[in-house]
Amino acid sequence: MIDINKSLNLYFSANQDILDYFEYEESWLFLPIEDQREWFWNKDNEKVYYAKTRHELEHEENNYYDIKILHNHHITKNVCRTKDFTLIAVDYESDGNKSLMIFDNSLEIYKPST
């Protein structure tokens, strides 16, 4: 039988550990965390761009997506960069969906300035 109390404690503890690692403080908004560590990515001040392969990201094709970075007065830091990973608060602009995406910094592909 599953010890649901133990599972809940582990879940909430791990969630808080992740937020603490990024020095992200929740206030009014409690956003789900999405694992994007296998995606190639880059960002500008307004959006995050991500794709399954470097080619798809650079050519904006197939499994390529962009999503708006969440700017909200309840969020003090919408991009939290650490040595290895970056957490970004995003807004799907659909059905009120928002989340925290975690990307691997080794897969960040810098976009040349235009």
Short description:
The protein is α+β, with helices and mostly antiparallel strands and 114 residues long. The protein contains 2 helices and 7 strands, in the order αβββαββββ.
Helix content: 10-25%
Count of DSSP-assigned helices = 2
Instruction: List the domain count as a whole number.
Output: 1
Which percent band covers the strand fraction? 25-35%
The description of the largest β-sheet is: 7 strands, mixed
| Pattern of helices and strands | HEEEHEEEE
Shape: globular
Tell me the span between the first and last alpha carbons: 58 Å
Give the tally of β-strands. 7
Helix/strand-derived category reads alpha+beta
List low-confidence stretches: none
Rounded mean pLDDT is 93
Radius of gyration: 16 Å
